[in-house]
Amino acid sequence: MAEAKTMITNEVESWPGMGSAPHRFGGVEFLLGKTEIGHLHGSYLLDVPFSKPVRDVLVAEGRVQPHHVLPESGWISFYLRAPQDADYALWLLRLSYLRHVLLLRRKRHGAEAVAGVDVEAALHALNLSPSLQAAFEPLQRSPGK
After folding, report:
1. C-alpha count within 13 angstroms, C-beta hemisphere, residue 39
2. Which of 46, 54, 77, 121 has the fewest CB atoms in 10 Å of its CB?
3. Is 114 a domain residue?
4. CATH number for the domain harbouring residue 93
């Protein structure tokens, strides 16, 4: 499973605006600018921040758990138990990345690094469930709508 950590890190670092750094509790955190989109503890546990509505849908869909330390937050935990779990870990990180790209664009500050990211097409490629699509809709609306 150690190769999963390398594969995930290499893929996430290839996305516009992304980098990585050591996480304060061990492992590696993935950063969009200075904002964390998730982190890996070794090659077995992924923690990812979402809004509570998105977290609630992901938990209800059964593949993730509320965060192992902060279960009432928007964070989720996903345990990598088999090699194919790396694909779902990347899916979760991509979803978090796109959420944070949308948040950056709302702030209109620091969004230059992700200017070329087609969020709508990328979300479509993730094949979101109708419930996840609905949870993302408020972020996709322009401010003031």
Report:
1. 15
2. 121
3. yes
4. 3.90.1150
Across 26-35, average pLDDT: 90
Q: Is residue 145 in a domain?
A: no
Q: What is the pTM of this model?
A: 0.93
Cβ atoms of 40 and 19 closer than 8 Å: no
Residue given tokens 């304060």 in the structure block: 24
Query: CB-hemisphere CA count at 13 Å for 46?
Result: 28
Residue 131: strand, helix, or coil = helix
Those residues whose C-beta lies under 8 Å from the C-beta of residue 87, and which sit 6 or more positions away, are none
How high does pLDDT run on average in the chain? 90
Flag whether 22 is in a domain.
Answer: yes
Domain encompassing residue 31: 2-140
Is 117 a member of any domain?
A: yes
